[in-house]
Structures are given as structure tokens and as C-alpha cells.
Design goal:
The complex is a heterodimer of chains A (about 350) and B (about 110). By secondary structure, chain A is of the alpha/beta class. Chain A folds into 2 domains: about 210 residues, 3-Layer(bba) Sandwich (FAD/NAD(P)-binding domain); about 120 residues, FAD/NAD(P)-binding domain (3-Layer(bba) Sandwich), CATH 3.50.50. Chain A contains 8 helices and 23 strands. In chain A, helix 5 links the parallel strand 13 and strand 14. The longest helix of chain A is centred in the last third of the chain and has 19 residues. Chain B has about 110 residues and is an alpha+beta fold. Chain B has a single domain, classed as Roll (Ubiquitin-like (UB roll)), CATH 3.10.20.30. Chain B contains 3 helices and 5 strands. Classes of the chains: A alpha/beta (about 350), B alpha+beta (about 110). At the A-B interface, strand 20 of A face loops of B.
């Protein structure tokens, strides 16, 4: 079990800045995120799109913003726990004990939920039958490509993931790439490679088609796809790989006894505390009168929530407001020398 | 004020007034219309405000851009007449617009 002053759920910009605000007032923290890296929506939804409303930063991409925040919080040496989701939260005396789906356990007087719109999960196929073959013959990500050696594979999607995996797996066997429209969205060199593989007969492209049905009872034997004009076609398939991006789900947070209003958590705007003492919510996931879902609002919320955490983490100490420009103790926490 | 009709996948009609300049997505949120999630808040990054627009209205709304088309690839059961409602801006010309929400958004 890891004991700390605060546990932050979500490593998007707001969660990362919360690390900073806790750090400069001398509090330690651990960060948990379901994704495999920091950045949240900035990295998953719009890594390359410029953002124009970060104060004093005229223009930056989601990726740049994330990298700068990571650099800014480096001195505080927060623990990061990626690729896992907090499943359970329970109160033990004055502390919150959190368990993740990977079995990691954390204990702290404060929990800061900076979970955006929820945790990212792959968007699944619409067909009901797809469920029973999931993780068996239908996959939403690839963990072991050897599984696909000498098998018939149908790949769905028109973006980078679908194209990259079609190219990669076409080295092992023949691929059918199915997409709802004739245009694919990918880098020019990737699209050229796909065209080349199509000429060589390694990749069969089916557009504009959608998945209509899955055949087979206990074992999937094939699929039926439907052309835009209604024409049906059968394709023998051992494995389906489906790449339709990510969706955001509130997930277990909904079961933690927190007040929830339309997928958001109401907070008090003095401390950003929820209805449960010691649990705070900041960023897109919190709501209050006048709430704006802006990164800059998340930064403000992180600053206030961090101060509120101090009282619960160090009940016998007095919190003193200090500026980063002149405070020797803050400079010490930032690891600055020449003091 | 232009009237916009949101039709559920069960054909239930809900007609509301939406101020000019707001998006069809915002009109839905302000009027508690079910079937539009709008997870990303209108930044064209999630495809959970996906709607179907009837043929006769498709030509009257601003043409679809590549980025919206790319995002629609991710939507739940997109069709030829699919649009993201965050990209349809309400104007007097769209008074009477009807959009149908899909069975689910994600």
C-alpha cells in the first residue's frame, strides 16, 4: 500500500497541474490514469490541434501543453500509475483507501478526481453478437500479433490505427480492410503503402461497407458486410480487429456515493470538495454555477483544491500563502540551488 | 426564434426553439433532449452528438468538412446523412430543421 497526502485520479492537464499546486505547498501525491501516458483528452482527442486560450501561451498543441506540464512538475516526483483505473474507494478512519483494477492500493486523506469526462475505453462494435466473441475472436487493440499468423483477418476502421495494423499484419497473412466510405484518414506515406499492398494482393479493401452480421455460434466463422447501396457480401473471418477510436465512460466513479448531475460532480467553489469530505473534483468532471469547461478553469480549481487538501494532510500545521517568486521553502521544493 | 425538431430513434418528436447562432448540439443540451451526449463539449473530438439529417435539409446546412467526416467514422452507425450536431449552426434558414438521434451515441 502506498501512503501519500493526496491521490489524483486523471493525468490530464488539470490533474498534472494539481501535482504542481500540491507540490509547492509541500504535499506529496500519486496519480492514477487508465491511459498508458499523461495528457488525457489533450493527448487522446487532439494531440496536434492548436490550443489558443492558455494564458501567456499564444498557441500550443495538446502534446506540447502536456510535455510542458510534465516538465513543470518534475521536481515534485509524483508517482504515476498508468494503464489502470481506480475501481474501489473506501473510508478507513480519516483516510481514503483506493484500489485499482491492477490491484494497487493507495491510502491518503485526500482524493482529487480530475477525471475529465471519464476514463477512455475503446468504442465497441454495434452488433450485439460481437460481445460473445470479444477478446476471443474480436479485438479492439492488439496485444499478441502472433495470434493472427495464417488466419483470415477483417479490420474495421478508416483511421491511423486501422491502417497501421492492416499494414503490419499484412506481413503475416491476407487482410480485408473494411471502411464505411472510400476515403481513409492517414499519413500520405501510409496511404501509399496501403495502395501498394492492395496491388500486391496482400490487402483487400472493401469500401463503402459496414458490418451487417457475424456468423457462427460458439466460433465465429465469417461476417456479412453491407455496401452503402444495400448489397450484401460474405467474408470468411477468423478474427475481427475494430478501430473506432475511444469513448469516455464515467465508470466506477458513479458508485462512490458522490452526488452526480449529468455525468458531472457538483462541488463547493471555495474548496472544490464534493459531498464527501476529503474527495475533491476539478476540471471537466466538476460542476458549479457558471462552470466553464476550459483548461484554465481546471488550473484555478486545482490551486484551490490543493490548499484545501493541506488542512487534511497536515492538520497540526498552519498553511501559509506564499509566492513562488520569493519563498525559500517553495524554492527548496522546486529543487532550486544558489539560495 | 428558429424551431428545431429532435426525433428520437423511437420516432418521438421534440420541437424546441433554439436561438440563432447556437449549434443544434447546444440546443439539445439546453432543452434536455435525450440522445445527444456531446462528451467533448463541441470541439469536434468525440462523435457523441451524431445525428441523421433528412435529405431535403442536408443541402440547406453548411457543407460537411473533412475533419467532421473523419470524426463521423468513429460515430455509432454513421450513414450517408450523418452529421455532428455541434457543427450545425442554427440560423433563420434552418427554421423547421429536423434531426434524428441514433439508437445510442457510443
Amino acid at each position: 500500500m502506498i501512503k501519500t497526502d493526496a491521490i489524483i485520479i486523471g493525468a490530464g492537464p488539470t490533474g498534472l497541474f494539481a501535482v504542481h499546486q500540491l507540490g509547492i505547498i509541500g504535499l506529496k501525491c500519486e496519480v492514477v490514469d487508465n491511459l498508458d501516458r499523461a495528457g488525457g483528452q489533450c493527448i487522446e482527442l487532439y494531440p496536434d490541434k492548436p490550443i489558443y486560450d492558455i494564458p501567456a501561451v499564444p498557441e500550443c498543441t495538446g502534446e506540447e501543453l502536456t510535455n510542458n506540464l510534465l516538465k513543470q512538475i518534475e521536481p515534485f516526483k509524483a508517482g504515476f500509475h498508468f494503464g489502470q483505473r481506480v475501481e474501489e474507494i473506501k473510508q478507513v478512519n480519516n483516510l481514503w483507501v483506493l484500489t485499482t483494477n491492477k490491484g494497487n492500493i493507495f491510502s491518503a486523506p485526500n482524493v482529487i478526481i480530475a477525471g475529465g469526462v471519464g476514463s477512455f475505453e475503446p468504442r465497441k462494435l454495434a452488433l450485439k453478437e460481437a460481445e460473445k466473441f470479444e477478446n476471443n475472436q474480436i479485438f479492439y487493440s492488439v496485444t499478441n500479433k502472433n495470434l493472427f499468423q495464417n488466419k483470415k483477418i477483417s479490420i474495421f476502421g478508416g483511421g491511423d490505427s486501422a491502417l497501421d495494423w492492416a499494414l503490419e499484419l499484412s506481413k503475416l497473412n491476407e487482410i480485408t480492410l473494411i471502411h464505411r466510405r472510400t476515403e481513409f484518414r492517414g499519413a500520405t506515406h501510409t496511404l501509399n503503402e496501403i495502395k501498394q499492398k492492395e496491388k500486391e494482393g496482400k490487402i483487400l479493401i472493401k469500401t463503402p461497407y459496414n458490418l451487417k452480421s457475424i456468423e457462427g455460434e460458439s466460433v465465429m466463422t465469417g461476417i456479412q458486410i453491407e455496401h452503402e447501396d444495400g448489397k450484401l457480401e460474405k467474408i470468411k473471418t477468423n478474427y475481427i480487429l475494430s478501430f473506432f477510436g475511444l469513448i469516455m465512460k464515467l465508470g466506477p466513479i458513479a458508485d462512490w456515493g458522490l452526488n452526480i448531475d449529468k455525468k458531472t460532480i457538483p462541488v463547493n467553489t471555495e474548496t472544490f470538495q464534493t459531498n464527501r469530505e476529503g474527495i475533491f473534483a476539478i476540471g471537466d468532471i466538476c460542476t458549479y454555477p457558471g462552470k466553464l469547461k476550459l483548461i484554465l478553469s481546471g488550473f484555478h480549481e486545482a490551486a484551490l483544491a490543493a490548499r484545501a487538501c493541506f488542512k487534511r494532510a497536515k492538520p497540526n500545521e498552519t498553511y501559509r500563502f506564499e509566492f513562488t517568486t520569493g519563498s525559500k521553502s517553495i524554492h527548496g521544493r522546486l529543487g532550486l540551488k544558489n539560495e | 426564434m428558429p424551431k428545431i425538431t429532435y426525433i428520437s430513434h423511437k420516432s418521438k418528436k421534440n420541437t424546441v426553439e433554439v436561438p440563432t447562432g447556437l449549434s443544434v448540439m447546444e440546443g439539445a443540451l439546453q432543452n434536455n433532449i435525450e440522445g445527444i451526449d456531446a462528451d467533448c463539449g463541441g470541439s469536434m473530438a468525440c462523435a457523441t452528438c451524431h445525428v441523421y439529417v433528412s435529405e431535403n435539409w442536408l443541402t440547406k446546412i453548411e457543407k460537411i468538412h473533412d475533419a467532421e467526416q473523419d470524426m463521423l467514422d468513429m460515430a455509432y452507425e454513421p450513414k450517408k446523412n450523418s452529421r455532428l450536431s455541434c457543427q450545425i449552426i442554427v440560423s433563420d434558414d434552418l427554421d423547421g430543421l429536423e434531426v434524428t438521434t441514433p439508437i445510442k451515441q457510443a
